[in-house]
UniProtKB/TrEMBL annotation:
InterPro entries: Cation/H_exchanger_CPA1, Cation/H_exchanger_TM, NaH_exchanger, NHE-1-like, NHE_CaM-bd
TM region(s), chain numbering: 6-25, 37-56, 68-91, 103-124, 136-156, 168-198, 218-241, 262-284, 290-316, 328-347, 359-382
Keyword Metal-binding carried by entry: no
Biased composition annotated in UniProt, kind: Polar residues: 654-664
Pfam families: Na_H_Exchanger, NEXCaM_BD
Any one of the GO BP annotations: regulation of intracellular pH
Organism the protein comes from: Sterrhoptilus dennistouni
Name of the protein: Sodium/hydrogen exchanger
Coiled-coil spans in chain: 504-531
Gene Ontology annotations for the cellular component aspect, listed alphabetically: basolateral plasma membrane
C-alpha cells in the first residue's frame, strides 16, 4: 500500500507488525520472545554500524567533525545530567512510589535515554531524503555519542554498587571517557590496517575477499567490547580505514558482493530490531507511573531543544556555513531514540535497580513517541519549512575536478598565510598516504595508480574480443588495436551499430578512476611555503638592471645641469620658416663639419608638416651617398624609427638619437641664447659633443 508507506515510516510499520505478532503469540497462550541484550549487541547491531561506517560519506563527515563532536559529546552529557537531575527532583516530589529512587539511579536513567539512536535515525532520515549537511550532523551525532553513553552507563552502574563515591572516582570516570572513545578508534584502525594488508595477497583467491572485510570488522567490534571500549567507534574506524585500500586490491565482483551483502545484512538486522521491539513491548513486565513517564517524555523534549539551541549559538560563531533556525529545528526534532536505549535498560540488574520495570516502561514510551510522532511528522514538516533536499543526481566529473581544484587552491592559500587549517592537514595526510601507506597496503603496480591507462587497455581488449566473436574477421593478432582493425576491414562493421549502455557499476568504476587520476597538480609541484621561499635569480637580475638604469639617469641629469647649454623648445614649423627666412646665413653649415645634414626648407611652401620629429630624422648624406635631386627638392625626408629589439637595455644601447650629428642638429635648430633658470624635465645636450 504505497499511500501508507509514504505517510508512515517503515520503522513504525515494523513495530506495529511486532506488536501484532506479540499479541498473537500471547493470545495463543505462549510466552513471546524478548529482545535480549546479548543478541542485540552481538548480532543485530554490528551489521548496521558496519554498513554505516564502511559507506560513510567521508568528506562531509570530516568537514563537520567539530560540530558533530560538540553535539555528540557536550549535547549528550547535557541531556543526561539535565534529565537525570530533573527526574531526581520529580522523584523527590512525586509521592511514595518514587521517593526511593536515588540520584545515581536517575542519572543512569538519564544516560540511557539521552543518546540519539543511529538505527532509528537511519530508518527515518533515509526516507525523507534530507540534505547532506543535516543528515551527517544528526547521523554522525548518533554514531559518536555511543562512547559517552557507554562510559556514563558503566560509570553510574559501578557507582550504584559503591558505598561512597569519592572525587577520585569521578576524575577516573572522566578520564575513562577518553580511554573508551580513543581506545575504540585505535582498535578499529589496527584491524582496518590488517584487513587492508591481507587483501593485498588475495589476487588468486577472489572468492574469500568479502569474507575478510566482515571477519576483521566483527573482530574489531568484539575486541573493543571485550575491554569495555566503544564497539561502535571501533567498527566505524575499521570501515573508514580499510575501505580505500581494500577496494583498490579486490576485484569488482567482490566489491559488489560486499556492497549488497552489507545492505542486505543491515536491512535484515534493522527489520528484526523493530519487530522485536514490538514483541518485547507486549511480552515484557511493565510498571506504569503517570508522573514518571510523562515527566520523562516532557523533559526529554525540553533538554533536546535547549541543548541544540545553546550549542548551535556557540557553534555558529566558528562556522562559515551557519546553521539556520530551520536546520536547528530539524536537528532537535530528529533526536530519535531506539533499540539501544531499550537494550541498555534491559541489561539493568534487579538487585541494584528495583525500579527496572518502570525504567523500561518509560524508555519504551519515549521510543514509541519519537519513532511514531516525530518520525511520522518530520516529512511534512520538512516540506512545510522548505528545507533543502538531497540531490538525487550524482556530481559530474567537471564538478569533482573543480572541487579538487578548490581544495588545492585553499591549501595553497593556507600555506601562504601560515594558517594550518583542515585543508593543510588533509593535504599532509594525503601526501603521507600516497608516499608510504599505499605502497605497503596496495598490491603491485596498483599503488602507483596508472589506472586510467590500464582501464583503457582493458576496454580495448574487451572490444577486440567482442569484435572477433561477432564474426566476419579472421585471426587477429592480440597486439593489434581496434583502431587498426577498423582500418584493415572497415566494411565488416555493421552500418547502424548499437552502443551498449553502461551499467551503473561500470559507470561508477569509470568515475572512480577518473576522479583519482585527474587534477593531481598539487602532488607534482614542489611544495611551497612562505617560510621557505627561494629568491628568483631572474627577478634579482631584473631589479639590479632597474637600479642601474635609475642611477645612470640620475648621473646624466646631474652632468647635464652643469655641462650643457640649455636647449630651446622646438618651435612650430611656421616659426622655423620665419626665422630661416629672416636670417638664412645664421643657419648655414660650417665648412669643417662634414657630417652635418643639409636642411632645405621652402619658406613659401604651405604643405610642410605641422610638426617635425627631429629625433626620428635621418640626415641626408650620412650614408655616404650623394643626395638625389628628388631629395633636394623634397627637403626633409622622414624615416620610420625602427623599434628596439626585445631584451636590449635602452640606457646602455646607443640609439640613433644619441649620435653626435643628431645632437648638433638639435643645437642648430634651437635658440643659442641662455635662459635664466633651466626647468626640470627639459632635454639637455652634453657640452662635449
Amino acid at each position: 500500500i504505497p499511500s501508507v508507506s509514504h505517510i508512515v515510516p517503515e520503522s513504525c510499520l515494523l513495530i506495529v507488525v511486532g506488536l501484532l505478532v506479540g499479541g498473537l503469540i500471547k493470545g495463543v497462550g505462549e510466552k513471546p520472545p524478548i529482545l535480549k541484550s546479548d543478541i542485540f549487541f552481538l548480532f543485530l547491531l554490528p551489521p548496521i554500524i558496519l554498513d554505516a561506517g564502511y559507506f560513510l560519506p567521508l568528506r562531509p563527515f570530516t568537514e563537520n567533525l567539530g560540530t558533530i563532536l560538540i553535539f555528540a559529546v557536550v549535547g549528550t552529557l547535557w541531556n543526561a545530567f539535565f534529565l537525570g537531575g530533573l527526574m531526581y527532583a520529580v522523584c523527590q516530589l512525586g509521592g511514595p512510589g518514587l521517593n526511593h529512587i536515588g540520584l545515581l539511579a536517575n542519572l543512569l536513567f538519564g544516560s540511557i535515554i539521552s543518546a540519539v539512536d543511529p538505527v532509528a535515525v537511519l530508518a527515518v532520515f533515509e526516507e525523507i531524503h534530507i540534505n547532506e549537511l543535516l543528515h551527517i550532523l544528526v547521523f554522525g551525532e548518533s554514531l559518536l555519542n555511543d562512547a559517552v553513553t557507554v562510559v556514563l552507563y558503566h560509570l553510574f552502574e559501578e557507582f550504584a554498587s559503591f558505598e561512597q563515591v569519592t572525587i577520585l572516582d569521578i576524575i577516573l570516570g572522566f578520564l575513562s571517557f577518553f580511554v573508551v572513545s580513543l581506545g575504540g578508534v585505535l582498535v578499529g584502525v589496527i584491524y582496518g590496517v590488517i584487513a587492508a594488508f591481507t587483501s593485498r595477497f588475495t589476487s588468486r583467491i577472489r572468492v574469500i575477499e568479502p569474507l575478510f572485510v566482515f571477519l576483521y570488522s566483527y573482530m574489531a567490534y568484539l575486541s573493543a567490547e571485550l575491554f569495555h571500549l566503544s564497539g561502535i567507534m571501533a567498527l566505524i574506524a575499521a570501515g573508514v580505514v580499510m575501505r580505500p585500500y581494500v577496494e583498490a586490491n579486490i576485484s569488482h565482483k567482490s566489491h559488489t558482493t560486499i556492497k549488497y551483502f552489507l545492505k542486505m545484512w543491515s536491512s535484515v538486522s534493522e527489520t528484526l530490531i523493530f519487530i522485536f521491539l514490538g514483541v518485547s513491548t507486549v511480552a515484557g513486565h511493565h510498571y506504569w507511573n503517570w508522573t514518571f513517564v510523562i515527566s520523562t517524555l516532557f523533559f526529554c523534549l525540553i533538554a533536546r531543544v535547549l541543548g541544540v539551541l545553546v550549542l548551535t549559538w556557540f557553534i555558529n560563531k566558528f562556522r562559515i556555513v551557519k546553521l539556520t533556525p530551520k536546520d536547528q529545528f530539524i536537528i532537535a526534532y530528529g533526536g530519535l531514540r531506539g533499540a539501544i536505549a531499550f537494550s541498555l535498560g534491559y541489561l539493568l540488574d534487579y538487585e541494584h535497580f528495583s525500579m527496572r520495570d518502570m525504567f523500561l516502561t518509560a524508555i519504551i514510551t519515549v521510543i514509541f513517541f519519537t519513532v511514531f510522532v516525530q518520525g511520522m511528522t518530520i516529512r511534512p514538516l520538512v516540506d512545510l519549512l522548505a528545507v533543502k533536499k538531497k540531490q538525487e543526481t550524482k556530481r559530474s566529473i567537471n564538478e569533482e575536478i573543480h572541487t579538487q581544484f578548490l581544495d588545492h587552491l585553499l591549501t595553497g592559500i593556507e600555506d601562504i598565510c601560515g594558517h594550518y587549517g583542515h585543508h593543510h592537514w588533509k593535504d599532509k595526510l594525503n601526501r603521507f598516504n600516497k608516499k608510504y601507506v599505499k605502497k605497503c597496503l596496495i598490491a603491485g603496480e596498483r599503488s602507483k595508480e596508472p589506472q586510467l591507462i590500464a582501464f583503457y587497455h582493458k576496454m580495448e581488449m574487451k572490444q577486440a574480443i567482442e569484435l572477433v566473436e561477432s564474426g566476419g574477421i579472421g585471426k587477429i593478432p592480440s597486439a593489434v588495436s581496434t583502431v587498426s582493425i577498423q582500418n584493415i576491414n572497415p566494411q565488416t562493421l555493421p552500418l547502424e551499430r548499437v552502443i551498449p549502455a553502461l551499467s551503473k557499476d561500470k559507470e561508477e568504476e569509470i568515475r572512480k578512476i577518473l576522479r583519482t587520476n585527474l587534477q593531481k597538480t598539487r602532488q607534482r609541484l614542489r611544495s611551497y611555503n612562505r617560510h621557505t621561499l627561494v629568491a628568483d635569480p631572474y627577478e634579482e637580475a631584473w631589479n639590479q638592471m632597474l637600479l642601474r638604469r635609475q642611477k645612470a639617469r640620475q648621473l646624466e641629469q646631474k652632468m647635464n645641469n652643469y655641462l650643457t647649454v640649455p636647449a630651446h623648445r622646438v618651435d612650430s614649423p611656421t616659426m622655423s620658416r620665419a626665422r630661416i627666412g629672416s636670417d638664412p646665413l645664421a643657419y648655414e653649415p660650417k665648412e669643417d663639419s662634414e657630417n652635418l645634414p643639409i636642411i632645405t626648407i621652402d619658406p613659401a611652401s604651405p604643405q610642410s608638416p605641422e610638426s617635425v620629429d627631429l629625433m626620428s630624422e635621418e640626415p641626408k648624406g650620412c650614408s655616404g651617398l650623394p643626395p638625389s635631386p628628388e631629395e633636394d627638392e623634397e627637403g626633409l625626408v622622414m624615416r620610420v624609427k625602427e623599434p628596439s629589439s626585445p631584451g636590449t637595455d635602452e640606457v646602455f644601447t646607443p640609439g640613433t638619437s644619441d649620435s653626435p650629428s643628431n645632437q648638433r642638429m638639435l643645437r642648430c635648430l634651437s635658440d643659442p641664447g641662455p635662459r635664466p633658470e633651466p626647468e626640470e624635465g627639459e632635454p639637455f645636450i652634453p657640452k662635449g659633443q
